[in-house]
Write a structure and sequence with these properties.
Blueprint: H1 2-17, H2 21-37, H3 42-63, H4 69-88, H5 94-107, H6 112-123, H7 132-148, H8 153-193, H9 203-208, H10 214-226, H11 230-234, H12 237-246, H13 249-259, H14 263-273, H15 277-281, H16 284-296, H17 299-307, H18 313-317, H19 322-332, H20 335-345, H21 349-353, H22 358-367, H23 373-386, H24 390-398, H25 402-411, H26 418-430, H27 432-436, H28 441-454, H29 456-471
Helix pairs in contact: 2-3, 2-4, 3-4, 4-5, 4-6, 5-6, 6-7, 7-8, 8-10, 8-12, 10-12, 13-14, 13-16, 16-17, 16-19, 19-22, 20-23, 22-25, 24-25, 25-28, 28-29
Domain PUM-HD: 164-472
Organism: Effrenium voratum
Protein name: PUM-HD domain-containing protein
C-alpha cells in the first residue's frame, strides 16, 4: 500500500516538473476557480492549497529564469494571484497577501488586480478598529485602480465605501483634535498676554480641568476669537466645527436673558457676541439672538454687529436663518449701515430676486429705500439688473418669488425708482388682458397695482378693447 502511494506521489511530482511556468500558472488558476465554486467547504481549502503550491513553484522557477519582459510580466501576475489565494484562505492571511501584492506592484504599478488585492489586504474584510493610515493607503490603491479602469464597478463601489468610512472616522476625530487646538492657543494667549485676557468665566480653570465641558469650550472659543493676533488665523476647520456645536440653546438663552436686562447686562452680552455674529446668524436659535441684539443695541453697536456680515451677504440671503438677520439690519439701521447689502447683491440680483429667501432682502431694500441719492443709486443698480430686458421683466412678474419684488418696485422707492415703475407698468400693459386673466393671482394682483398707478379708467378701456378685438 505504502509503495503504491509513493509511486503515485513520484509520478505526480514528475508530471508537475514536466510543466512549464506558464502551465503551472494555468493549473493554479484552474484550482483557484474550483475553490471559488466550492467556497467555504473542505474541498475549497484543498483547491486553494493546490493553487498556492502551483503559484509558488512557478515563482521559484522564475527566480532562475532570464529576467526579460515576458518573465517580469509573469512574475507580476503570479504574485497577484498568490495574493488572491491568501485573501481567500480561512482565516485570511492579510500580511502575506499584502506582501505578495507589494511584489506584483513593484514589477508593474499599473496592475489593477494587484492594486485591488492589496487594498483588500489592508482593509481586512472591513474589520472595525483599523488605523486611518491603513484605510487611506487602501483608498489610494482603489483610486489608482479606478483611474486605470474607470468602468470597474467593483473597484468603484469599494472606493466609495472606504471613502465614506474615512469621512466618518475623521469627523469623530475632530472633537479631540479641536480640544487640543483650543488648549494650545489658550495656553499661548495666557503666556503672551497674562491675566489680562481672563474674565469672570474663569478661563484658567479650564486648563486645569481634565474633563472639558461644552460650556468651557464655548468660553474659550470666545476668548480666542477675541484675540487680535495670530490665534484666530490658526483656528482649524475642526475647531470651527466644535465651536458651532457649542452654540447651543444654553448659550443663546443666557445671552438673550442678558439682552433683555439692564444696560450693563446688554453691554456684556454684546461683548460676548463679538466675532460670532456670522456663526450665530446661520443657526436657528442664533439668528433670533442676533436680531434681538440689533434691536436693543445703540446705533453704533448695531452698526458693528451688521459689519460682521460684510462679505457674507450672498450666502446669508440664501440662508433660511441668516436672511432674517439681513432683513433686521435693513429695517433697523441707517442706510449708511446697511447699504453694503445692496452692494454685495449687485451682479447677482436676478438670481436672488427669484430665490425663496433672497427675494425678501430685495423687498426690504425697496421698502426702506434711502432718501440720499448716493445710497438710492446703489439700490437702483440692483433693480436695473432685474429689468434689463422685456423678457427678464415679464419673467420676474410671473415668477413664484420674483413677483414679490416686482410688487415692491411698483409700491415703493418714490421718485428714485420712477423710471423702473414706468417700465414695469409698460411691461404689464404690453399684454394687459393676458396678465389680468393670468391663472396666477400674483400676476393679476400686479395688474391691479398698475391700474391704480396709471388710472382705472384707462386700464378698463384697454381691457375692453382687447376683449372686443377677440370677439371680432
Amino acid at each position: 500500500m505504502e509503495s503504491t502511494e509513493s509511486t503515485e506521489s513520484t509520478e505526480a511530482t514528475e508530471a508537475r516538473q514536466s510543466l512549464s511556468i506558464e502551465d503551472l500558472k494555468e493549473q493554479g488558476n484552474l484550482a483557484f476557480k474550483r475553490a471559488a465554486l466550492l467556497r467555504r467547504t473542505t474541498a475549497a481549502s484543498q483547491y486553494l492549497s493546490e493553487a498556492k503550491s502551483y503559484y509558488i513553484e512557478a515563482i521559484q522557477r522564475l527566480g532562475s529564469a532570464k529576467a526579460d519582459s515576458a518573465n517580469l510580466a509573469l512574475t507580476c501576475v503570479l504574485h497577484s494571484n498568490l495574493a488572491a489565494v491568501y485573501l481567500q484562505e480561512v482565516p485570511p492571511k492579510w500580511t502575506e497577501a499584502k506582501a505578495a501584492a507589494d511584489i506584483a506592484l513593484t514589477v508593474d504599478q499599473q496592475n489593477v488586480k494587484a492594486r485591488f488585492r492589496r487594498a483588500q489586504a489592508l482593509l481586512q474584510d472591513n474589520r472595525e478598529g483599523l488605523p486611518i493610515k491603513a484605510l487611506k493607503e487602501a483608498l489610494d490603491d482603489l483610486k489608482a485602480a479606478q483611474t486605470l479602469e474607470p468602468r470597474n464597478s467593483q473597484v468603484r463601489d469599494e472606493a466609495k465605501r472606504v471613502s465614506q468610512r474615512l469621512d466618518r472616522l475623521e469627523q469623530k476625530q475632530q472633537v479631540p483634535i479641536a480640544r487640543k487646538i483650543v488648549e494650545k492657543h489658550v495656553a499661548a494667549a495666557l503666556l503672551d498676554r497674562g491675566s489680562d485676557c481672563l474674565d469672570s468665566h474663569g478661563y484658567a480653570r479650564f486648563l486645569q480641568s481634565k474633563n472639558t465641558s461644552t460650556k468651557s469650550l464655548e468660553q474659550h472659543a470666545m476668548l480666542i476669537l477675541r484675540m487680535d493676533k495670530s490665534p484666530r488665523v490658526c483656528l482649524s476647520q475642526a475647531f470651527l466645527h466644535i465651536w458651532e456645536a457649542a452654540l447651543g440653546k444654553e448659550f443663546c438663552d443666557r445671552l438673550d436673558s442678558k439682552l433683555q436686562g439692564g444696560q450693563a447686562e446688554q453691554k456684556a452680552a454684546l461683548q460676548e457676541m463679538r466675532s460670532l455674529v456670522w456663526q450665530l446668524s446661520r443657526d436657528a436659535l442664533g439668528c433670533r439672538l442676533v436680531q434681538t441684539a440689533i434691536a436693543v443695541a445703540s446705533p453704533a453697536a448695531a452698526k458693528e454687529i451688521a459689519g460682521e456680515l460684510r462679505g457674507h451677504v450672498r450666502e446669508a440671503a440664501a440662508s433660511p436663518h441668516a436672511n432674517y438677520v439681513l432683513q433686521k439690519v435693513i429695517s433697523q439701521l441707517s442706510p449708511a449701515s446697511f447699504i453694503f447689502i445692496a452692494e454685495e447683491l449687485v451682479g447677482n440680483a436676478a438670481r436672488f430676486a427669484r430665490h425663496r429667501y433672497g427675494c425678501r432682502i430685495i423687498c426690504r431694500l425697496l421698502e426702506y429705500l434711502p432718501s440720499e441719492e448716493k445710497y438710492a443709486t446703489i439700490v437702483s443698480l440692483v433693480i436695473d439688473e432685474l429689468l434689463s430686458s422685456l423678457s427678464e421683466a415679464q419673467d420676474l412678474c410671473r415668477h413664484n418669488f420674483g413677483h414679490h419684488v416686482a410688487q415692491g418696485i411698483l409700491e415703493h422707492g418714490g421718485h428714485w425708482l420712477q423710471r423702473h415703475k414706468d417700465y414695469l407698468a409698460e411691461v404689464l400693459q404690453y399684454d394687459l388682458e393676458g396678465n389680468a386673466m393670468h391663472r396666477s393671482a400674483r400676476v393679476s394682483s400686479l395688474v391691479a397695482i398698475v391700474c391704480r398707478l396709471i388710472g382705472v379708467k384707462f386700464c378698463a378701456g384697454q381691457l375692453f378693447a382687447g376683449i372686443c378685438a377677440d370677439a371680432l
